[in-house]
Design a protein that fits this description.
heterodimer, A: about 450 residues, alpha/beta, Rossmann fold, 3 domains, four-stranded mixed sheet, 22 helices, globular, B: about 190 residues, 6 helices, about 25% helix, about 20% strand
Chain lengths: ~450, ~190
């Protein structure tokens, strides 16, 4: 996977790229407006960050406390060291209940574990029930964004696939009409499923409960009609106390979509009589990331997607260009930890502008970690074309005399530099960029004349 | 070694500095709670009505199957709570009592006792929640303080009708759950 190549592919359709950029900026703008309406916003971010620091410092204690309390509430607790074990646990539960078809609400963890293809290979029908996820599932695509899975698609593309799969009117791309068709289709699936799978937003050590947030109500439609609820949770999703939900629920939806809270925030503490709840606590590389001190606090992430919406690179390259389960800035910190070779181009898919860190509700220093990964990767891989031209520039800026001479040369060169050199393959920087219009005189010359 | 021990021992082997757990302040919210709560519900695409409003809603709509679990509005009920939630699939209107509301975001706290069946507030076509004005708290910190720690099998903060913006960020009300939420403030 190579981000620059994939991004270049995305940018070929300039009108679509502009639309994608604008759509995500719209979400970022909503986040800005609502966060500014909360006077204690910055205090909340700091609080959330400190709570998560405490969680990571005492993770083993909180996991054991969570397990003990969940078991006391009649919840079955499973532990999975990796994706394969997680998937097998899910399959075993399904087999035990002779279940051939499941409904599933949004869970980035199950995407990370590639649960759907595994279950399908084993003869299980998997229906994703979040509208955006159902759309991309129909198209055999992964989600392109962790909160807005179908954000890369125009409504006519959705109309076309619904016409094919749900027999909607050809050419009718009215969002209300299409949503109602999905509602009808998925209602049958909800009513027929014996097992429902969800992700987890927060697990509370103090009570052994877990919280799932949606706007559509699809997680609840699934689990309350099914006999068995399987919840898949990364071990870093734990928080110490119930009162901390107040802090995180205030931050999550405001950061994600600019709403004050998601419309449904479900607290699962024990099963209904005659029903079962299973929770699977999954490591899958998280303990390795915990062991990397520089990257440890990437595990604070609450998966709001704000860093994606604000990122100038994500907005202009699309989620698929990252080739990772979690795209965007935080994905570019998490993914190299999972597979450094496969994801080595991702930490470079950033301007290091720091906007991701500024909007992060748990104050992860995302851009600094991207810079750290670049150093790790460069050490591991040696130089590439961009770093050669950058090291020449570093040499020039480091020595004032060299800068003076070369500045004069550059002024001459800017006038005559043909595009073939500026935009050559060797100069990665020249892609998507134009050289500036040259002023008649240099600042130095102007200063000499005017400030004697 | 089981995966449980494997994961826990890996975590324990990682040296980490102690980090204290911060105190959560209450924070405050300026303004009239009823007004703020009403604005929040409206922003979430719900509606707030007075006591007389419920009768009007029922008179104006042709609801065939109505289930009321709110004691003061039992007269509107024309069906019983079934044993199996699947039998709620053609329910037009559910009327339930909420425990308290949160002014900053319109969230209303419900537990098993309010819902009868956990599927009820989701599967019903339309939802009415009856809430006392005096129950309102300012923000989520006050909300969790009020909830405390007693056991509730299932607890829900519901803040509006089912909605989605997954198709080109166009807001559509009525995705999978209730197509409307009306809050009767008494």
């Amino acid at each position: 996977m190579n981000h620059p190549q994939e991004a270049a592919e995305f940018l070929k359709d300039a009108a679509n790229a502009k639309w994608h950029d604008d759509t995500l900026w719209f979400v970022r703008d909503k986040r800005d407006k609502i966060s500014k309406s909360v006077p204690e916003w910055e205090a909340l971010r700091e609080l959330a960050s400190q709570i998560k620091d405490n969680v990571l410092a005492n993770l083993e204690t909180y996991l054991v406390e969570f397990e003990k309390n969940a078991k006391a509430n009649n919840i079955h607790v499973h532990w999975a060291k990796d994706a394969a074990e997680h998937n097998q646990i899910v399959l075993d539960i399904l087999n035990e209940h002779r279940c051939q078809a499941i409904v599933k609400s949004k869970s980035i963890l199950t995407e990370e574990c590639h649960l759907n293809p595994f279950l399908e290979k084993n003869g299980i029908e998997v229906v994703d029930t979040d509208l955006g996820e159902r759309i991309v599932q129909f198209l055999n695509q992964p989600p392109s964004h962790i909160v807005l899975p179908a954000i890369h698609l125009k409504k006519m593309a959705i109309s076309d696939v619904f016409h094919e799969k749900l027999q909607t009117e050809k050419g009718n791309d009215d969002p209300y009409y299409l949503t109602q068709a999905a509602r009808k289709h998925l209602r049958e699936k909800f009513l027929g499923a014996k097992v429902a799978i969800t992700g987890v937003n927060f697990g509370v050590a103090e009570t052994g409960e877990f919280v799932v947030c949606t706007n559509e109500g699809n997680a609840d439609m699934g689990v309350h009609l099914a006999d068995v609820h399987i919840a898949c949770m990364g071990i870093e999703k734990i928080i110490p106390k119930r009162e901390h939900l107040g802090v995180f629920l205030r931050l999550l939806a405001r950061s994600a979509t600019g709403q004050s809270i998601t419309n449904y925030n479900s607290h699962f503490r024990s099963p209904s009589p005659g029903k079962e709840i299973h929770i699977i606590l999954v490591d899958n590389g998280r303990t390795e990331q915990l062991g990397r001190e520089k990257f440890r606090n990437s595990l604070k992430c609450i998966r709001c997607g704000a860093c994606m919406n604000t990122c100038p690179i994500y907005r202009r390259s699309g989620g698929f260009s990252y080739g990772s389960t979690v795209p965007g800035p935080i994905g570019s910190v998490l993914s190299p930890g999972i597979d450094l070779k496969k994801h080595s181009s991702l930490p470079f898919a950033s301007t290091l502008c720091g906007s991701c860190s500024d909007v992060c509700p748990v104050k992860i220093n995302i851009h600094e970690q991207l810079y750290e990964w670049r150093q790790e990767i460069t050490k591991a891989q040696g130089t590439n074309a961009k770093s050669i031209s950058m090291s020449i520039a570093n040499g020039i800026f480091a020595v004032p005399f060299a800068y003076k001479i070369s500045a004069g040369m550059m002024r001459g060169a800017l006038k005559i530099l043909p595009d073939s050199i500026t935009y050559s393959g060797l100069n990665t920087w020249g892609k998507q960029r134009d050289l500036p219009e040259l002023p008649k005189e240099s600042f130095k010359d102007w200063y000499k004349k005017n400030r004697k | 070694m089981s995966s449980r021990e494997n994961i826990l021992s890996k975590i324990i082997s990682i040296p980490r500095d102690g980090k204290p757990l911060p105190e959560t302040p209450d924070f405050s919210l300026k303004g009239d709670l009823v007004k703020l709560f009403t604005q929040s519900i409206q922003a979430n695409k719900g509606e707030v009505v007075g006591e007389e409003g419920l009768a009007d809603i029922i008179a104006q709509n042709n609801f065939k199957k109505i289930l009321s679990l709110a004691s003061q509005y039992e007269e509107f009920s024309n069906t019983e709570l079934p044993a199996d939630p699947h039998q709620l699939k053609d329910l037009d209107l559910a009327i339930i009592a909420g425990q308290f509301g949160v002014a900053e975001n319109g969230a209303i706290w419900l537990t098993d006792e309010n819902m009868g069946l956990r599927a009820l507030p989701f599967i019903t076509e339309h939802l009415v929640i009856v809430l006392e004005k005096k129950s309102l708290v300012a923000n989520m910190h006050g909300a969790y303080k009020k909830i405390g720690l007693p056991h509730s099998g299932f607890g829900l903060f519901i803040a509006g009708p089912s909605k989605t913006a997954d198709i080109e960020q166009s807001l559509v009300i009525g995705a999978h759950g209730a197509k409307s939420l009306r809050v009767v403030l008494v």
